[in-house]
Structure formats: C-alpha cells, structure tokens
Write a structure and sequence with these properties.
By secondary structure, the protein is mostly beta strands. The chain is about 0% helix and about 40% strand.
C-alpha cells in the first residue's frame, strides 16, 4: 500500500516528514519507520529500472544504458508509466537526445494508455516532438504547434497549473500554452514517457526526468511490510534539525489480508462397524492459509437431524 499526505503550504521550516506506527495510546516506537523529504522534487537519472518509480506495460523496446533509458518502438507499445501520481500544480522537466524518429519525445499526463502519438485521448495532456515540430494537445482535443530545430541534447519543460499547460524548451523556440477546463485534469494523474521510434530509428535516449511541485507526498510501503502488533494508526510529524513539530496528523490503518480456506478432507470411509465402535479414515488436503487446530468428527443416527460428536472422536489433534 501507500501513504499519501497533503504537503504543508509553507515548507520553509520543514526538512522532512516522519511517519510512525502508533495506537490510540501513543507511539509504538520513537523511531520513525519512514521519512519523506520536504520539497517535492523527484528526479530519475535512469541508472537502472526501478519498479518503485516506473512500470512498463511491455519491456520490449525499453533498455538501459550508462545513465539513460532508450525507447525503441511505437509509443502505444513502448513507454514507461510513473508509479507516482501527480496532482496539479506541478512542473515536469526532461533531457533527451535528438534522434531521427517520427516522435523523438512523447510526454503524456493523464488520459488513456492505448492511443498513439496523434490518436485521440480519453482526457489528458500530451507534449511531443514530432520531426522538427513541437506539439501540445489538451484534454478537449485542441492543440498548438511550433517549429523547433533541436540540437543533439535538449531539455523540455511542461508546467501544469489549474486549467493551463505550457510546453517550453532549452532551444529558445516558441513556448506553447493552452488552457482547458480544470475539471478535465482533476485529481491524481499518471505520467507516461517515451517516443515513437520505429523502423530504422536507433532509439530515443532520455538522460533524466524530473518533476517538482505536486500538492501531495507519497510513501510506497515496501512489499512484505508487517503491521506491528498493536498498530492501529500512522502518525506523521514534521521535522527539521531543531526537532519535531508540535502538530501531528493521524490516519487509521487496517490489517487487510486474504485467507484461503483449507481444502476439505477427501476419501472419507468407514470400516469395522460394530455395536460400540467404528473406524473412520480420510485423506488430509492442503491447509492453504489456515493453521491446524484439530479434526472435527461428527455422526448422527439414521433419521435424526442433529449431528453429535461420538465418544472418542474429540480432541483429534494429530495431523
């Protein structure tokens, strides 16, 4: 799971946010189990594929070099999707190598993942470099374009505010700005990055990716994290070198897990029937997510509806 907090409006006196396990009686430990830095800048230098940052619908066409990621294929099939979702306002920056491709850079905010570079989107914003043209598409389907001759390595910036997006670059080309209804990009949005580099295209290389702003901070709880005994809350406190802040935010947590029932015994058979005894046998099956406690053996007289535990058939704790 993940913990998401709304950042303080003024973070000038905040260095980190500390997250503690707690109960209604107080903290379970004075040591935080997680720390989130103030300031919401995230930067990936693409040293390796980090599944806590990105997911790839199809890894084919995505490769890592020395400090860069390469996209080779269509954008619809070859792109990375951010694990972190962003809420307006925020700014995205990237450094990309110029390449001969249909689209050397595609950066999509929100919308569906199935569309091609020029295909219709289910909402969302898309900034792209198609040939020597910058293209900016907004959620309602409108777009702006401008010519731009990029050099070997170039940087782009996409700034998103309530109802407006601006696509600028390091080459001094015309900045593209479009407005749209704020409701079209409301709530957390996923980011998709890639290119449309097929045929003889050798690949579009991204040197780094950076996002700053974002109203929220998110901590992804590592897989396999065990809820401490007695933990019913998460408490978040601000911190700087002087100490912890006095204001604490609290959220309840639940231990949600799925238990798979044990498989019922099979091949049940009786033998050696006598006036005062009978032998019962069965095969044990998988316990699944259960712990073994004891066997339950019940019997009833012919014609009766009530099941009873026969004498000698209780307390069977041997597997």
């Amino acid at each position: 799971g993940a913990l998401t907090i709304a950042r303080a409006e003024d973070e000038r006196d905040i260095s980190q946010y500390l997250v503690f396990w707690a109960s209604s009686q107080g903290l379970l430990s004075s040591e935080p189990f997680a720390r989130m830095n103030s300031g919401s800048t995230f930067r990936d230098e693409f040293v390796r594929m980090d599944p806590s940052f990105w997911s790839a619908g199809s890894p084919q066409g995505i490769s890592y070099g020395v400090g860069f990621v390469r996209f080779q294929g269509s954008f619809a099939d070859t792109h990375l999707t951010s694990a972190r979702q962003l809420t307006v306002p925020f700014v995205i920056k990237a450094r990309v190598r110029k390449v001969t491709a249909f689209a050397g850079l595609v950066l999509q905010i929100g919308g569906g993942a199935e569309a091609g570079v020029l295909g219709p989107m289910q909402g969302g914003v898309r900034a792209a470099l198609i040939g020597n043209w910058k293209v900016l598409v907004t959620p309602e389907g409108g777009y702006e374009t401008a010519p731009c001759a990029f050099v070997a390595w170039y940087e782009v910036t996409v700034a998103v505010t309530q109802g407006q997006v601006t696509f600028s670059d390091s080459q001094g080309c015309l900045a593209l700005t479009r407005t749209f209804a704020p409701s079209m990009l409301e709530g957390p949005q996923q980011i998709r990055i890639g290119a449309d580099c097929t045929g003889s295209c050798e690949g579009s290389d991204w040197d780094w990716f950076e996002v700053s702003g974002d109203r929220y901070a998110t901590y992804n709880v590592p897989p396999g994290t065990v809820l401490p005994l007695g933990a019913t809350q998460l408490r978040v406190a601000t911190w700087n070198p002087v100490g912890e802040g006095s204001n604490v935010s609290v959220v309840s947590v639940e231990d949600t897990h799925l238990v798979i029932p044990a498989v019922a015994p099979s091949n049940v058979a009786i033998d050696g029937v006598a006036l005062d005894s009978v032998a019962v046998s069965w095969d044990r099956n998988a316990l699944q997510g259960c712990f073994f406690d004891s066997w339950q053996v019940l019997g009833r007289r012919v014609g009766d509806e009530e099941w009873l535990a026969p004498v000698g058939a209780s307390g069977l704790v041997d597997l």
